[in-house]
Specification:
Blueprint lengths: L17 H52 L13 H8 L10 E3 L5 E3 L8
């Protein structure tokens, strides 16, 4: 039986409260900080790995040059700090000069100025 005219059903459908929205935003912010921090650690590990791999590649290229050319020194392509590497690139023993290390004339590693890479 219908009484009371045109009364509408009342629902508590006011959406989210401000507190609930703030709570969701805080949780998302915490999650994003955790993700960014973990990615930063992976990037640092990759940099160290790249540095070590680069050192091994340079030493191998110098040894191959010495063995193939029956030489004891690498001639410098120019007067730049990476001149010995440029010679190895020109001779086909390297693809590109290292960004972490330089070589001296007898194939020893020299750290690039300002590089944080250590082997």
């Amino acid at each position: 039986m219908h009484t009371g005219g045109n009364q509408m059903d009342q629902h508590d459908d006011d959406g989210f409260t401000l507190i609930e929205l703030l709570l969701v935003i805080v949780v998302l912010a915490i999650l994003s900080v955790v993700v960014v921090a973990s990615i930063g650690g992976v990037t640092d590990e990759a940099e160290v790995s790249s540095c070590k791999s680069d050192a091994t590649t340079l030493i191998t290229a110098a040894e191959a040059f010495f063995a193939q050319r029956d030489a004891r020194v690498i001639p410098s392509a120019d007067a730049s700090p990476d001149g010995y590497e440029k010679t190895l690139v020109a001779e086909g023993f390297l693809r590109t000069p290292s960004r972490y290390h330089d070589l001296d004339s007898i194939g020893h590693l020299v750290a690039v100025t300002g590089s944080q890479c250590t082997v």
